[in-house]
Amino acid sequence: MSTAVVLLNWNGRHWLERFLPEVVVNTAAHAEIWVVDNASTDDSRDWTQRHFPEVRWLQNTENAGYSGGYNWALAHIPSEIVVLMNTDVLPRPGWLEPLEQALDKNDQLGAVQPKILDQAHPDRFEYAGAAGGFMDRLGYAFCRGRMFDTLEMDSGQFDVPGPVFWASGACIALKRRAYLEIGGLEPHFFAHFEEIDLCWRLHRAGYEVAYCGESVVEHVGGGTLGQLNPHKTYLNFRNNLLCLSRNLPLAQLLWLIPVRLVLDGLAACQLWVSKGFAHFWAVVRAHRGYYASLSKVAQFRRSDPYPRSWPSTGLFPGSVLWHYYLLGHKHFDRLNWNPNKPSLGPRR
Fold this sequence. Notes:
It contains eleven helices and 14 strands. By secondary structure, it is an alpha/beta fold. It has a single domain, classed as Spore Coat Polysaccharide Biosynthesis Protein SpsA, Chain A, CATH 3.90.550. Strands 1, 2, 3, 4, 5, 6, 11, 12 and 13 form a nine-stranded mixed sheet that branches. It has a three-stranded mixed sheet with strand order 8-7-14, with no helix packed on it.
């Protein structure tokens, strides 16, 4: 299979200068490396073409965000395997081949992610993906190696590959045909939670999503929107509700969405105390944004051909909120759960 490593850039010359040399050196020679630019106003293009003329450049005329930018790019890049990689990711030597092999040997595998470590502390997992993503029955996303804001040290405890609910958008390898078949990333999300929605739709279309611990990258995190940016809070809360509403049967949404709205309100109060009023107001705006987007959700549900359901793997049957905040279970193994076993039986 042909492979393209695709980096989406927006005014990120400093990230390209810092990490593109490592991407070029540590990526197998048979793979093409592309930088897709979201209408940057800095000198990203001049710097890249001056120092790495072998890297291919694709220029967009607008900032279409993570979702729209990659959708536009993958319509132009014909490789069979595409790796979507943030510009603030440092891949370690030999990182690409295990991902390619996983996709090549399993026809049903649509997406796979590497182990993602914190670039500043490479012995610790990184927030955005860690060792593969999961979700609980209330729709809260979490990772092996990262429960809410608690990051675990990497001691090889999660090196074994296996199925996951979702793979991180910081570095995700996909079969391009599967990506295009399900319609790619949802542009309305713009950024955040879009890869979870993508992976959920892959599951619903009959594909699998996996984690491969043999492949290792390091991620800075927050390269575009930092952890303290209220707009990041807005996107996370709004897009979480949208993701649930796009993928679950109506009967489940009728009880889940009201519960989540109440829990979001409690979270907003906690954010006001810990991060300031701007984050509280971001949650309020997120709910408004969710209501304003319901017509788009309805339109999607009418056109989407795949049955709505939880995936048969990767769904934690309990509540991570209960385990984390009330029982004090801060690490993944305290859940006493084997994600490799099907949680719901048949998809339908």
